[in-house]
Amino acid sequence: MLPDWLQWLNYLLWPVVVLSILLVFWLLLFRTIANWIAAPFSGLLAEQLEARLTGATPPDVGVFGIMKDIPRIMKREWQKLALVSAARHRAVAALLYSRRWADGSPGTLVPVQRMDAGDSIL
């Protein structure tokens, strides 16, 4: 895709592209794990804030109260994680499988160049 006199730049661009993609995936994974760990405490914080804003008496949350709620909270977090994960997998599959070749044959999971076609699908 680059002119002949810029082919040396190809050796610099590919590592930058690969590292950028890996960085994005790592950041998304880190954010997901951090949110999953912080979710039980976010719920408790929201209860305390709502009680203060409405003027109601805040629920008595001690160490034992938190320990009692952890199984329920973790079960709910696993349910949310499964729901979001399934939705993401369906969206990615729909995007990958919806691509069709110019002649109407079904698409593939990865963009590959057909031998009988002159140019790639990209």
Automatic annotation (TrEMBL):
Q: Does Transferase count among this protein's keywords?
A: no
Q: Which residues cross the membrane?
A: 12-30
Q: Name one Pfam family in it.
A: EI24
User: Where does it live in the cell?
Assistant: Membrane
GO BP terms: cysteine biosynthetic process; sulfate assimilation
Q: How does it sit in the membrane?
A: Multi-pass membrane protein
Q: Which domain of life is it from?
A: Bacteria
Per UniProt, what is one GO molecular function of this protein? high-affinity sulfate:proton symporter activity
* Gene Ontology cellular component annotations, sorted alphabetically: plasma membrane
Keywords in UniProt for this one? Answer: Amino-acid biosynthesis, Cell inner membrane, Cell membrane, Cysteine biosynthesis, Membrane, Sulfate transport, Transmembrane, Transmembrane helix, Transport
Q: What is this protein called?
A: Sulfate transporter
Q: Which gene encodes it?
A: cysZ
